[in-house]
Structure formats: structure tokens, C-alpha cells
Amino acid sequence: MKIFISFSLFMVTTIAIISCSTQSTTTSSRTKATDNEKRHSLEAQLDANGGVDAKKETALIQVLTSNILNSITNQRDAHPKAHGCVENVDINISPNLAKEYQQGIFATPNARYKGVVRFSSGSSDPKVHDATPGSQGLALKILLPENLQKLIPDIPGEKYKLPKNYYKSADIIMINAIEEFMVNDVGSYPAFFKAVQMIKPAVGKAIQSGASKEDIAKIPGKIFFKEYISTLKPDLQAPVGRLLQVSGSSKTDNVLAETYNSWVPYAFGPKKAVKYRLTPCIKAQLVPSDAEKRDPNFLANGLQKELSGTGSYCFELQAIFHEPGMPSIEDAALPWELEDGTKPEYKTLAIVSLPKNSFAKNETCEAMSFNPSHALPSMRGIGGIQRARKLIYAATQNKRNGLSEEK
User: Fold this and answer.
1) Percent share of the chain, pLDDT over 70
2) 337: CATH
């Protein structure tokens, strides 16, 4: 799903336009507890479709899937540019994990799993220069023992290019720079995609007409506000504008020095919901020189250099738990804050260690599907965005791998 935009040369002006435009909207970024109670309790939200009109949502997801399939060939529709793929990753569940957090793959303290980590650019352009402002992604695939693989349901239509254990896994998809998603729900996608698709031809037309650089630079921000942000509910306009600003202007020097967030939630047992993040155990020190940063693939080069030699590099896998008073898990753009504007602390669940000199073959990594519904049922991705990902990611991986959608 093309859910990221590379703002490139237009970003500074885009930020200014979106910022000014959203100042007139409400600054509240949280849905009040009473609104949550009216919508659904957390238990209701954890149901298959969170109380959302399932028929209407499914129809919209089918349309989105069809449109996306028509726009791609043999590459990923999201995050097509990989910086590197590390295999033989060690996931060690915290030995002193409290009883209340012992769920699913975290049920046994000090248990160990192997996994794969794919680092990628958030741009939909597979040839984007790494210096271009924008977010960076990290996808974690936790490989599970056979007894747990048997508990993971099939995703309708998904075919297997690789051994079955790569699909009967626990996948967590993350991004740096921001903790929420700039598309609040499935119903917001049409307007978002419309804005994205209008920018390139509008800029091209302006260039042909001889417009100034300053006027051309204003085009993306104007389009995003008119076609997307202004169509959202008032309490979403300011948060979404901020998310577009921050993610679009983010610059990364070293993918191992970043903190990555899951954006959208996952179930954590029968009655809890979490968002995950990976934060460095010790921040990576390697900073590329100006000369090195002229290489369009300097992030991949730095990752190779950082993970050379002996030893390993690690992240803490943490979770923030949904609490009463927070926005609905169906609201992907709103931060999980309490009534007083504070956030609960993240809890460390495991240590994810990346061994050195253990890069996966590019063709193997690019054949992999990272899907939030590759999960135990009690740990699945939840909320509308995750339900859309489930079916869209399965369909797009089938297409890029040359597989039919029939089981």
C-alpha cells in the first residue's frame, strides 16, 4: 500500500502550508473518554471489526486492493527500497517479565526465537536518494516453533513463495519519526490517495507553464490540505497535519540509531491492546560524512559497515498498553494519551539482537511478506488500518512474487 510520500524539494513549503492551515482547527488530539464509551468499549473494539460496519469496510478494502494491484508490477507497493535484511536475529523474551505481560509469544520469560529484520525507505520510489526527507521502516518477522505455527490461521488468498514458517510467524511493522498514522481509518484512504495522485501532474503542469520555484513548492501542501486534510473531522485535522509534517521532513543518518513505532495497534491477549516500538539498547555511533551521504544508498552502506566484524547490535522491544480514556483503537491518527495529556510508560518485553555479518540474500528478503496478520489470533493486528493491511499485503505479495491468489 503506497502510504508514504517523498516530499523531497517541496517539503519546507508543504510544512508551512499544512501548519498554517491546521491552526484554525481544534488542537485537541485526543478523543474524550465519554466519546470512547459511546463508540465502543475496548472489549468491543477488540472484536473482529471493532464495531465498524464490516460490509462497508470490506467493500472499500476490495476497491483499494484492486487499485493498488493495478499500480504495481514486480516490486513492493510500500517500502520497495531495502537498506538491508538481517537474518538469524535473536529475540530474547525478558527473563523477569511480569505475569500480566506473559501472553502469546511472550508467555514464557527468557524464551528465545529467531527472526528477520528488514530495514527500508518509507518512500514509494525504489530509487529514492537516502538523503531525501522522509521516514524509514523496520519490519520484524519472529519465526516460531511448529507448535505455535499450527495456531496461526491462514490469510485468505495468500500463497507461499518461501517455506511455510515465513508466513506462520509473528510480524511487527514499524516506522521511525512518528508514533501515529497519517491515515486515521480505512474511510480516509480514498481522499489521501487522491491527494497523492494529484501532486505529480500538478507539479509537472506548473513546471511546463514556467511557474516559479516558490509557487511550485507550494503545490503539495495546498493539494494535501484541500483534497485530504480538509475532508477529515475537525479533531483529526491538526494531528494529521502534524504527522505529515514530521514524517515528511524526517532525516536519517543511521538506521540503527532510530526508534521505530508500530503506529497502529495489536491485540495482546483477549482484553488488551498495545502499540510496539523498537528502541536502540545503545545508540549507534556511526555518522556518515558529507561525501558518503552523496551516495544515494548511504544508509545501506552504513548498515553494512555497522554490522561488520564480530558481536551484535540490539534493540529493546517495548509496548505501550491501551488504557481507559485513550482514543479508540480505530483512530490511527490520535496519540494514546490519558485525559491529562500524559502517556503511560513503555514496558520492555524482549531484547532483539542483530548478529553481525548475517545479511539475508536480497532475493529471499524481497520475497518475504511482512503482514500484521501473520500472528497468533490473540496477538493479531487490530483496527481498520490493520484489517486493510491483512488483505492488501497478501494480494500484493502474491502479485510481485508471480503467484495466483488461489489457495
Assistant:
1) 86
2) 2.40.180.10
